[in-house]
Amino acid sequence: MEEELISKKDLLELTGISYGQLYRWKRKNLLPEEWFIRKSAFTGQETFFPKQKILDRIDKIVHMKDDLSLDELADMFSPASKAISIPMKQLIERNIVSTNAAKTAEAYIGQSELYTFEQTLCVYILDYCLQTGEISLEEGKTLIPTFLEHYKKFKEQQCDLILLRKMGVSVFLLLPAGGEIHFESGVKIILRVDVPVMIEQLKLKLMAI
Amino acid sequence: MVDKRKLIITGIGKSNGGDVHLAKIEGVGKIDGDVNCAEFRVDGTGDLQGSLKAATAAINGIVHIHGSLHANTFNLEGKMTVDGSMISEHIRMNGMVTVKGSCETETFEANGRLHIEMLNAGQIKLTLQGASRIEEMGGEDIQIREQSSKGFGKWLQTVKGPFSNKLNAGVIEGDRIYLEYTTADIVRGGKVTIGQGCTIGSVEYKQSLDVHSSSKIIKQAQV
Asked: A single Pfam family, by name (chain B) (predicted)?
């Protein structure tokens, strides 16, 4: 995946933030280390960023830093699971997940009253996938055990969830974020879910109580 | 930290590290693993094969940390080498320091000779004594000053050579920058003041640029 890059200088000009702010946000882990791409340019060393990702992130930080402290923001952007448990009822009531997704997930996660962050994330992703209309409820049922079983193995590392289909047979897989994959002909990538983005969205929704 | 255990080495000793309340070396100590503690103290020589996590760390003497270093407040008098990165809130150092990874902290106050790959701090106050090298430096306030030599050092200064106080840097970026006796490829910032004895390849500034007559700037641009 070739991403469009933006140089540090252009970024600061475009967003109107200062060097100090950029360095501070990096220190506070609001900007992940992987986004700092060092390249040699004719002026010497230059730092580049994935354009879309960094602009989105800076936009969020600028808009939310009045309401939240930098540490709270860092917590939101971090791919680490939060140590929380939420009653499923509340998730449905607050419209974070649909009743449909919750019902489907219940069979696999069990009817426990409280869901951990990871379980909630799983239901949230299922819901998102169903909303796109790209996957069937049947396929959704294989998503849950796949995700719950293997997501932990990535630990703090970021990952993508991918759905493949060939001749009507679907396959779910998890792989490190941004990784490149190639297939035999006839295989189609139906859906690629950026899990860190999902985490960010979910944390944001959970926070707005 | 509930753990009240202590790890104390007095004289010459060795330990495997672990989670403790206080970790202290008085004399010569070697620790073969990671140390996780509230307070870390060295008076003498310490060799830590793993990483250190501490609320406060105070070092008087010589320390080599093979892993990385996390300490909310960090004080050093002496010499230290960190092979990994160093993350802190407040750093005060006096002596010779090498950090092979990046160093991130809110305040950074150092006096001496530094070798750091990447320094990211809110406030940087660096007093040069000897030749320092910092590859990349960024922050809000950056002040680099030269320590005027005293005694024997002054006599050595008459011959400009490897003993002179200077900083060699790749990139320096900050909102407010003041430099003395610095050689850098690129300086970028809001308010930039270039004091005595600097040679800068290129300066990009936003608000203002002041340059001392003894300093040389090859290229400058207001952006």
From this structure: Bactofilin
